[in-house]
Amino acid sequence: MPAEVQQPQWQIWSVPKPMAQLFDKFPLVEHPAALLPATPNTPKHADQPTLYIYSTAIDSSAHSPSFDAECLKWQTALLLAGLPFNAVSSNRHASPTFTLPFLNEPLSGPLVYSSGILKWIQENPSANLAAYLDEKTQADATAFTSLIESKIHNAWIYTCFLEPKNYQAVALPWYTKATAWPVNLWIGRQIREEKRAEIEAKRTVNGEEIYADAAAAFAAIAAALGDDEWFFASREPTLLDATLFTYTHLILSSPLVQDGIRQIVRTHGNLVQHAKRVYDRCYRK
């Protein structure tokens, strides 16, 4: 009589013991579902335009300032222009162009991206953002805006994304808060490299030189503002005021660990007071 064949101790749908022991060393972890950017908060006023921005506010509103420079600039410009709008917390995966901010007009109107928001403001008859500046003053405002968006913008990007401690403590949590680990690390690294490439397209990435350029730019802008409430002794704030506030507010209020750039801004008392004026006008609840 043939010897009885020893049957394996596992069935066809069970995991062999050696493999199970291996799996025990690397247990499956189920992360919470990431928030879907395509389903943002419902705007409180459906008849108003909606600005989609980066924001830490769970129930973001027009009066919760964005932590992203481009978003904050246009959010502040709309508020200074006196135009009613909703602000909704979002991220770039919700944008058709993979960038924020964008403005969505009510009743399924066309999307307006950051490059077109100024034109949208200017075409609005109820807006009051620097429509009264003369041609020469407009040219001066354009020159100072260019200075801010090159020298000071580079310094903010370097501070926030390329200073290692600031990246870990500030930028990474800001931009990947709704994303589970380890995907958040990959997204953060991707954004960081994009920001590095943005600077490299304009200049050498040298922190000492970048901060020196920013210091010179802040000094020139502080001299131009002088003791006036708004630039060019304007009756009302202009887009230049919104643009400067974008960076002074972020620099002064962000929880930076490496904060050399904050010390640069604080040497100009009029810039600190200007940031406070804009904040009080737009965001003080």
Automatic annotation (TrEMBL):
Q: What is this protein called?
A: Metaxin glutathione S-transferase domain-containing protein
Enumerate the InterPro entries for this protein. Answer: Metaxin_GST, Mito_Protein_Transport_Metaxin, Sam37/metaxin_N
| Entry GO terms, CC | SAM complex
What residue stretches are annotated with the Metaxin glutathione S-transferase domain? 215-278
Q: Name one GO biological process term.
A: protein transport
> What is the protein's species of origin?
Saitoella complicata (strain BCRC 22490 / CBS 7301 / JCM 7358 / NBRC 10748 / NRRL Y-17804)
Taxonomy of the source species: Eukaryota, Fungi, Dikarya, Ascomycota, Taphrinomycotina
**Family annotation (Pfam families):** GST_C_6, Tom37
Q: Where does the protein principally reside?
A: mitochondrion
Q: Where in the cell is it found?
A: Mitochondrion outer membrane
Q: Where is the Mitochondrial outer membrane transport complex Sam37/metaxin N-terminal domain?
A: 71-192
Q: Which UniProt keywords apply?
A: Membrane, Mitochondrion, Mitochondrion outer membrane, Protein transport, Transport
